[in-house]
Input
Amino acid sequence: MYYYLLPLYLFLFIHSGWSEDTTHKYTTKYDNIDLENVVKNERLLKNYVYCLLEKGRCSPDGLELKKNMPDAIETDCSKCSEKQKEGSDFIMRYLIDNKPDYWKALEAKYDPDGTYKKRYFDSQKHEIATIES
Output
């Protein structure tokens, strides 16, 4: 059941009740999804990726994600809850580390300048430096 909600956490930039108000936050309705189980289901992961890439059909939540993805990337998830930010990082790190073909296609469409990937590698360097100190 929760697997169906992957798009809400794939780049976790989803909300209901879109508003132009920059203080508006995305809904926390789906914050308790077990994302580790979600990424283990290849069929669902592929369906959502294809939805985002306009290569397949979208569920209603997939359409919502696709509509809001550019804003969330542009604003560095400023409207996300803390749990959504953590979930977003988890999904993106998973795709970068384990599904590079999916990541490259999504990055080309939604983050062509590679801003997120650069932040990801910078944070990895920082985490390694912290562990080594």
Notes: The chain has six helices and no strands. Confidence is low (pLDDT under 50) at residues 13-22. The helical segments are 35-39, 42-52, 60-74, 82-98, 100-110, 115-132.
